[in-house]
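Title: Prediction job returns without error message
Component: structure pipeline
Severity: low
Priority: P3
Assignee: unassigned

Description:
Job completed but the reporter wants confirmation the result is attached to the right record. Sequence as submitted:
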Amino acid sequence: MASNHDFVQYVADQCAAAGQIVVKKMFGEYGIYCDGKIFGLICDDRFFVKPTQAGSKLLKEVVLRAPYEGAKDYFFISNLDDHALMAQLVRATCSELPAPRPKRKE
C-alpha cells in the first residue's frame, strides 16, 4: 500500500526546521533527505528514521521496526506532532550519517 501524499507532506513539514528536506519516491514509497543525506523512509503512511546513538538519546521510547519485509530495523516514529523534536531528531541523526557519495560524471 502506497503512502498518502498528504501524510508524506506532513512528515516533511514536521522535519523542515532541520534543514533542506526533500522527499523522493523510491520503489513505490518514499525516502526522506535532509541536506542531501537520506535519514528515513515513509512506507505505508508510517515514518521510519535510521537508528543512531544520538537519535536514541532523544526518543522517549525507542521502537524498532522494519519499514518493509526484509529491511533492517529503523526507529518507528509514531508521534510526529512535536515539530521541534522532529527537527532535533533529524539533525542528530544526520550528524552521525556519512556524507552522500558524489555523483559520478558520465
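Comment from assignee: result matches the submitted record. The domain at 5-96 is CATH 3.30.1460.30 (Yope Regulator; Chain: A,).
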